[in-house]
Write a structure and sequence with these properties.
By secondary structure, the chain is mostly helical. It has four helices and four strands; from the N terminus they run E-H-H-E-E-H-H-E. The strands form two sheets. Strands 1-4 form a two-stranded parallel sheet. Strands 2-3 form a two-stranded antiparallel ribbon. Helix 1 runs antiparallel to helix 3, helix 2 runs antiparallel to helix 3 and helix 3 runs antiparallel to helix 4.
Length: 208
Amino acid sequence: IAGRSLAEDRARITLDEAKRYAIDKNFRIRALKDQVSAFTEDKAKTKSAFMPRVGVVGGVSSYGEVAKEIGPVAYGYASYNLFNGYRDQRRGELADVDLEKAKLHLAREEFIIGLDVEKAFHTYIYYNDLLGLQDSAIGLNNDHKALVNKTKRAGRSSATDVMEFKLKDAILRSDMELLLQQLEETRTGLKMLLGEEVGSKVTPVGAI
């Protein structure tokens, strides 16, 4: 989500946006991307050290470098370090392996982070939907409690009937508090996956 900030307290975000944002901002992903960049630089340095050097004078250097004629008119040399050449080649091969390993590790972490984001996202939607149903259940119970109070005044219900609905109301509200706690814990976990600059009330939107 280029150009978009999630710093607003109640920024709404879709699943696809959350995945892209996490891959861009997640702390572990950013560290692995830095590692890939570092290995890429190491590989470039190793390759440049391994390349032959070209000059414009002939002869053999004191470091065991062999000079060759490379032009029909002027004389020059293409030198290759005989002492370090095989070691440089080996270093180049190791740099290739390190870079490929870092790329694979990055790809694996991006896949895992994507799955973790999807799990947290859908869990949040699930708890949020449950909260909606719980709120409806509390409303219906209140309606029934009001009806029982009315029939009690008319002598058609007992105090026990009223207490039954009061007890149910207390249970429903207790379950509501638990759901709210689980919702906030899920939001906190999602924020950690998304990385920096995420508002405290980032809100997933969508359906399971």
